[in-house]
Amino acid sequence: MRAAVYGLSSIIGLAAFFYPFFLPVLDATRNEGRSGESPLLLSLLIGMCLLAVLLEVQVQAAGAKLIALIGILVSINAILRFVEVAIPGPGGFSPIFFLIVVTGYVYGGGFGFLMGALTLLASALITGGIGPWLPYQMYTAGWVGLAAPLCRPLVRLMRGEGKWPEVAVLAVYGGVCGLLFGLIINLWFWPFAIGPTEQHWQAGLSWLVGVKRYLVFYAATSLFWDLMRLGGNVLLTLAFGLPTLKALRRFRKRFAFSYQAAPVGAE
Predict the structure, then answer these.
(1) DSSP assignment string, 37-57
(2) What domains appear along the chain, each with residue ranges and CATH number?
(3) How many CA atoms does the CB half-sphere of 63 hold within 13 Å?
(4) Between 41 and which of 36, 69, 135, 224 could a Cys-Cys bridge form, CB atoms 3.0 to 4.6 Å apart?
(5) Whole-model pTM?
(6) How far apart are CA 230 and CA 16, in angstroms?
(7) What span, in angstroms and rounded, lies between the C-alpha atoms of 265 and 243?
(8) Closest CA to 112 of 84, 151, 81
(9) Is the per-residue pLDDT at 191 higher than 80?
């Protein structure tokens, strides 16, 4: 059931990102379509997150502790984003992805998805960053946490748990996600954007031409910005990875809390 909730939520998110590319005609001068769909998409995503939390409370012996942990970590991340907005860092650097990655890695993909999605929601309420882009940011941040347990096989192969090889793997993953976050997020508005023809989508384009145009658009508008996020994620993980992983594992052991990931990263 939990796997179905996370899977259905991700399918809805993917459909929301990509359905404009299947429309026969796009009005490139307006963005009302995205603005109109965002409240519904946000409501669906919040509903999915609440359902996931309720399911976890029912199946986990430490349900109250689970909710408390999510609340504490999301609050910490939301405050970090508030600081980021108050004192802007270079380019697209943001401190929030570090905790999303390490919590998803330690506690499982389901926890990571909730951590990413709820962090963006809570921080948007604090910073006033609510707009049609919010559900797309929530989905993308959630996917960062959802996929974090995929690092585990490589760490096991390297016998690096609790050591620097583990931190290095997570640093690389966080850096890649720093780029992918921007690469994916731009898709929410790109089909409706206006500008140079060679950088924008037009109905009827082949996928090859569309991908080429998008990469040109991304390189021209976002690549440098996202490289700052990549570098920030790597540096934060290298600086704080070992103590943070140790603390998260100590919490899990001390409170006998075993979070089973869904649909990826099962313990």
Answers:
(1) HHHHHHHHHHHHHHHHHHHHH
(2) 2-13+30-254 (1.10.1760.20)
(3) 10
(4) 135
(5) 0.86
(6) 26
(7) 22
(8) 151
(9) yes
Maximum Cα interatomic distance, the chain, rounded to a whole number of Å: 58
From the list 138, 224, 148, the residue with the least C-alpha distance to 184 is 138
CA atoms lying within 13 Å on the CB side of residue 236: 22
Q: State the burial class of residue 194 (Cβ atoms within 10 Å of its Cβ: 0-12, 13-18, 19+).
A: exposed
Burial track 168-190 (b if 16+ CB lie within 10 A, e otherwise): bbbbbbbbebbbbbbbbbbbbeb
**Is residue 74 within 8 Å of residue 118, measured between CB atoms?**
yes
Give the whole-angstrom CA distance, residue 165 versus residue 150: 15
Contact partners, residue 104, CB within 8 Å, separation at least 6: 111, 112, 113, 115, 116, 144, 145, 146, 147, 148, 149, 265
CA distance 202 to 120: 31
In terms of Cβ atoms closer than 10 Å to its own Cβ (0-12, 13-18, 19+), residue 40 is: exposed
Helix ranges (H only) for the chain are 2-18, 32-59, 63-86, 96-107, 109-127, 134-147, 152-158, 164-185, 207-221, 223-254
Question: Per residue in 42-60, is it b (16+ CB within 10 Å) or e — as a string?
Answer: bebbeebbeebbebbeeeb
Query: Could you identify the residue written with the tokens 């974090």?
Result: 148
Least confident of 3-17, 53-67, 200-214, 244-258: 53-67
C-alpha–C-alpha distance, residues 68 and 64, integer Å: 6
